[in-house]
Specification:
CATH superfamily of the largest domain: Outer membrane efflux proteins (OEP)
Mean pLDDT: 84
Distance between the termini: 63 Å
Shape: elongated
Structural class: alpha+beta
Low-confidence stretches: 1-18
Oligomer: single chain
Helix content: 55-70%
Number of helices: 9
Number of domains: 2
Strand content: 15-25%
Order of helices and strands: HEHHEEEEHHEHHEEHHEE
CATH architecture of the largest domain: Up-down Bundle
Length: about 475
């Protein structure tokens, strides 16, 4: 019964792979870089940075706004202050219509902002004493600056472009992360397929050898112990097939889900080795310093700490803000009289705040900001050293990885050849089943060791690309097509 079920499994497995989707490693990576969940996350992160930068750029352009009150009606008793400065209650029964147009422009060189306003108001008094009054401000120019000692716009002009450049480099690094994840899932499924293929072949060989050994046992050429040993090996082979079948199902689901494929029946090919190329440590470090987002991140974090220190210094010692206004206005009972004989409106205010004694609050804030800056600089220095060391060590490792792969490939050829010779000698009765089992285990291990070495070869290759953001085969900087969000 077990053999019948196993045969049915093999037939269904062969049929499934007859309808399977064949994928190469490079093809799988291209699919993952367009459809995988990691790509969607990377794209959303970059999209947020893109719109943040667009918001920053637009914020320094003239902002035009139109406001209106249509209308405001009140019929109530209200407390007001008369010309003598006394509070009195008056009955109000009126409606107010107001419109205004405003243009705002930030001034990045000073840290202030200009406002240009035009405003028209109409007040209708209702009830017994009906009347209409108009008020017109044809233009009013205002300037406001919160502090003369701290200019946040100056720092934003340094930091925000760096932040956006960091995001553009980050999405390229995330693409290489996707390549690494795809490699791991690809080789996970590939090793499961190869392991299942090995297990099926071993089971077929064990089945043949079991029949041969039973025949020899009947004529007394082998002892019962050897027959029992090969029966045990045959049962273990069945269990190995079952285990690898489950593993194949899991790894195929993982890769299919990652690539957003419609089928889990995926057939993979063993990737070829890359063409030979060399990478010098100097070249790797040079490209990493030019291309990696970490280099931009170091500069951005240092500037943010300097910005905070400048803000604390600018607000702790002396506070000065400026507000100025110049414009024209006109009030009239007739609309036609609004556009002649304008009155001027002017005002200037400079407010100064000087801390005299604050129990060391200002000093402690400044010292905390200075300590934060020193901490950031120390962290950046340590991370810079670790950054260069990682590239140095990985480049050294990459230079020897091709030799490891060649050794593993040669070991696989030797183990396969040895197993075939050992199997023939067992069939001829010249060695024991123990010797054959050892040769089989070494053969299976050599095949998996080669796949593991090939996997590490490709992972190290894409890690090198990620660390430097450079394609050493094409000898060019890694880049992606510009992404435009509507």
């Amino acid at each position: 019964m077990r053999r019948i079920l196993f045969l049915l499994f093999l037939i269904s497995n062969m049929f499934a792979y007859g309808q399977s989707k064949k994928i190469q490693l490079t093809e799988a990576i291209k699919i993952a870089q367009k459809k995988s969940p990691e790509y969607v996350r990377a794209l959303n992160t970059h999209q947020r940075s893109y719109w943040r930068y667009r918001n920053y750029v637009a914020d320094f352009l003239p902002q035009i706004s139109l406001g209106a009150t249509l209308p405001e009606y009140s019929n109530s008793t209200t407390r007001i202050i008369n010309d003598q400065g006394q509070s009195i209650f008056v009955k109000q029964n009126q409606s107010i219509i107001e419109t205004n147009l405003r243009i705002q422009q930030k001034v990045p060189y000073t840290g202030g902002a200009f406002y240009i306003n035009t405003q028209l108001e109409r007040v209708n008094r209702l009830g017994i004493d009906k009347s209409t009054n108009y008020s017109l401000v044809p233009f009013s120019i205002n300037y406001f600056q919160n502090s003369l000692l701290y200019n946040p716009y100056k720092w934003d002009r340094k930091i925000e472009p760096l932040r956006y450049e960091e995001s553009k480099r980050n999405i390229i690094e995330r693409m290489e992360d996707i390549s690494l994840s795809t490699c791991q899932l690809y080789f996970g499924l590939l090793k499961a397929q190869v392991s299942l293929d090995i297990a099926n072949k071993n089971l077929s060989n064990q089945d043949t050898l079991l029949q041969i050994t039973k025949g020899r046992f009947k004529i007394g050429k082998v002892a019962e112990n050897e027959l029992l040993q090969i029966e045990l090996s045959h049962l273990n082979s069945i269990n190995v097939v079952t285990t690898n079948t489950v593993l194949l199902k899991k790894t195929s689901q993982d890769l299919a889900r990652f690539l957003e494929l419609e089928t889990e029946a995926i057939e993979l090919a063993v990737p070829e080795k890359l063409e030979d190329f060399t990478v010098s440590i100097e070249k790797a470090v040079e490209e990493a310093e030019k291309n990696r987002k970490s280099v931009i991140e170091f500069r951005r974090r240092r500037l943010e700490a300097e910005k905070e220190l400048a803000r604390v210094k600018g607000s702790n010692r002396l506070e000065i803000d400026v507000r100025a206004n110049f414009g024209l206005n006109k009030r009239a009972e007739d609309y036609e009289n609004l556009f002649q004989d304008y009155d001027q409106q002017q005002s200037v205010r400079v407010r100064v705040g000087i801390p005299i004694f604050d129990w060391g609050v200002s000093k402690s804030r400044r010292k905390m900001a200075e300590a934060d800056l020193n901490l950031i600089e120390n962290d950046i220095e340590q991370e810079q050293q670790a950054f260069e060391q990682e590239i140095y060590l990985h480049t050294l490792n990459w230079s020897s990885q091709r030799d490891f792969l060649a050794t593993a490939e040669k070991a696989q050829e030797i183990a396969l050849k040895r197993y075939e010779i050992t199997k023939k000698r067992y069939i001829l009765g010249k060695i024991t089943i123990t010797d054959l089992n050892i040769a089989q285990q070494e053969k299976d291990q050599a095949v998996l060791d080669y796949l593991n070495s090939l996997e590490k070869f490709w992972i190290d290759y894409y890690t090198l690309r990620k660390l430097t953001l450079y394609d050493f085969i094409e000898d060019e900087k890694l880049k992606i097509a510009d992404i435009v969000f509507d």
